[in-house]
Amino acid sequence: MLQLVANGESIMAVARKMGISDSLIHAWRKASCKGEKKTDQNLQHEVDLLRKQLRQAEMERPSPGARS
Description:
Helix content is about 75%, strand content about 0%. With about 70 residues, it is mainly α.
């Protein structure tokens, strides 16, 4: 249903087709947007963690000219 709205169909038209109230679609859409934001936050956290791990690995790696 949300895909129909995302593709340009009006919320009222989708609600009529599905036999539900338009306020229900509004609520689903709002909940969906919150979920996307949370996912973006999770992805950003993962990127930050991976960057930190990369910096640590680069600091532990011997320089190219160094002998062990």
